[in-house]
């Protein structure tokens, strides 16, 4: 625990001149102190010592890595002291997390379509190519299968690539690489290779993007053994999860949502990470546990306002970790409220909700007063027409009705 | 037996030197001799968009005897694996490499252990070339703990991280993007090493190959793509699968070289050339014209799509071990008897390794759950009956 706060100053230095090229001989000279980042498009450049494992900063960074997936207490402590933080949008938070990690560890590189000179189709990688150079922020041709494979091959040697799918749906082309090589190599090599890769991209139903660009891949990837899946929903957890995913030795798939990129929130200035296997308690309550993730969190919170007016007290948990589930937090909640409603954007058939229902039923059946209700998207390709698209996903009104039904 | 000490390739003179190490050991005393010998490759190289290397290869007695010994070892290992499979000690898939050994030894002679190799499922001999031991091979084939992947990988998943051997992959063609990723990492770390990404004539029609080749050429990666063309993609002959079977030309803008893959010295020359090229100017494709005597795998007799005459014809005319044997004998580097002794020794080594591998136990049941994730998750994993079988993933 102490190591996390030790590291608070470690990654943060202020430098006035942005470095335009990747220079591995940068030495870390100035003492660490906290930094503040301006709003909007301009950011202070963070320069850090590049040589791994050879200086005290590197050793502290190593300590950080070993604790990276450990404790929960820190996020509570940090968020309560974060009043003097800085405000930014979710995509900027992702970018900040990525940039800090790239500064901190020279092995982190980014590959994807239009992530470099263009700045990323959702601006998550904006400015990184200019700062880190073409070898660390790589513009790939449109060849998902092979560049995901290349990321995995690079990860086998110890690099830590962050592979971006411009839209999660495009990663279906790389499914073979993700399933067979990414997930399984650690096992089939008898533990010789770890694959510390992060695969990320926006998914989910957007504003009339059409069927092929509104896919939710979490249900397809969830059975692959050996990978972890997380879904971010706020700028705070986006940055935290991005950093934790990069530091993790396991392959992590980070699901972002197209419609959440412009959410604004105040986040702490200090270095922090979010535990990859932990769920987030959004709103404690007594009557019913509502489990959700990604964009549906906001529909649930909207419904929660109506529910509170009607006299219900829902407990809302953002599960964040899609694989593995945080059954500890979820279980405690079920033991308290005895009613569960799952609200997700995945399809009904074989979705995250289906697995979660099975997991809760097996583990906590005795604590349930009513059958688990699961609200998911319809099992249809997402239509283009706006009215139809609205009906495809779960709306707050349906959530309210479901809770009323559950609590009867 | 009298030993000859050779100065140049041309003379077959009986230049007898007193044998210093007397007739004590059966191992050839010339295994440390490094006087250069120049040999011509069987056929000239054909090139695409580059200048072919010269046909004259420099070698020495030590190297030739090492080639002979290593190839004999690999050949014996594969034949022993064949018997083990028929005895049902090896199950599932078993893809044998006999006939193609020249590539494994020739490539190793041209590179270091710092260069990376990645290949498909016909990986037993490549693994041996990288420094794997017979015990690891047989134990892994039989699914025992002493195997290189602790028994959890099997025939298609041999890996050796410390000598940069990246496997061992079951899905046809998927290893080529991985190989280009290895080359990328080498370039990123400025290692001055190269990656050999091997694939077969069947895999040469995979789209991801061209994708990876495009990216490698674009980013100037030190990737060498090697097509081990044994002319059959499982049961389909190359002329039935590929419109253009000139695989070395398939790179279009990437230079290519066609090599006789049954000639270990030609392979060595080509790999050396390729390494120099890759470090300077980016990717290159090598096509190895080779042949496999066994079928695609143990479940394939190998004779339904080709004639037995063809197989025995290649064996008579182009066998890699015979070629080296003839070379050694013609240069008087060792006698027939010594070579036969080497083969006997190799056979004994293989038998010993099999005995030891059979003694190695099967993995413990708890090992089912290890290495799913790298350390530190502590999540639960379930069996078919979730209430009965439940374990925490370490």
TrEMBL record, chain A:
This is pyruvate dehydrogenase (acetyl-transferring). GO terms for cellular component: chloroplast. It is an enzyme of class 1 (oxidoreductase). Tetramer of 2 alpha and 2 beta subunits. It catalyses: N(6)-[(R)-lipoyl]-L-lysyl-[protein] + pyruvate + H(+) = N(6)-[(R)-S(8)-acetyldihydrolipoyl]-L-lysyl-[protein] + CO2. Its EC number is 1.2.4.1. Residues 88-263 form the Transketolase-like pyrimidine-binding domain. The pyruvate dehydrogenase complex catalyzes the overall conversion of pyruvate to acetyl-CoA and CO(2). It contains multiple copies of three enzymatic components: pyruvate dehydrogenase (E1), dihydrolipoamide acetyltransferase (E2) and lipoamide dehydrogenase (E3). It comes from Hibiscus syriacus (Rose of Sharon). It comes from the Eukaryota. PANTHER family: PYRUVATE DEHYDROGENASE E1 COMPONENT BETA SUBUNIT (PTHR43257), PYRUVATE DEHYDROGENASE E1 COMPONENT SUBUNIT BETA (PTHR43257:SF2). Pfam families: Transket_pyr, Transketolase_C. Keywords: Chloroplast, Metal-binding, Oxidoreductase, Plastid, Potassium, Pyruvate, Thiamine pyrophosphate, Transit peptide. It is found in: Plastid, Chloroplast. SMART domains: Transket_pyr. The keyword Chloroplast applies. GO terms for molecular function: metal ion binding; pyruvate dehydrogenase (acetyl-transferring) activity. Its main location: plastid.
UniProtKB/TrEMBL annotation, chain B:
Residues 69-365 form the Dehydrogenase E1 component domain. Residues 306-316 have a biased composition (Basic and acidic residues). Its EC number is 1.2.4.1. The keyword Nucleotidyltransferase does not apply. It catalyses: N(6)-[(R)-lipoyl]-L-lysyl-[protein] + pyruvate + H(+) = N(6)-[(R)-S(8)-acetyldihydrolipoyl]-L-lysyl-[protein] + CO2. CDD domains: TPP_E1_PDC_ADC_BCADC. Its cofactor is thiamine diphosphate. InterPro entries: DH_E1, PDH_E1_Alpha_Subunit, Pyrv_DH_E1_asu_subgrp-y, THDP-binding. GO terms for biological process: pyruvate decarboxylation to acetyl-CoA. Residues 297-316 are annotated as: Disordered. GO terms for molecular function: pyruvate dehydrogenase (acetyl-transferring) activity. It comes from the Eukaryota. The keyword Membrane does not apply. Keywords: Oxidoreductase, Pyruvate, Thiamine pyrophosphate. The pyruvate dehydrogenase complex catalyzes the overall conversion of pyruvate to acetyl-CoA and CO(2). It contains multiple copies of three enzymatic components: pyruvate dehydrogenase (E1), dihydrolipoamide acetyltransferase (E2) and lipoamide dehydrogenase (E3). NCBIfam families: PDH_E1_alph_y (TIGR03182). Tetramer of 2 alpha and 2 beta subunits. This is Pyruvate dehydrogenase E1 component subunit alpha. It comes from Hibiscus syriacus.
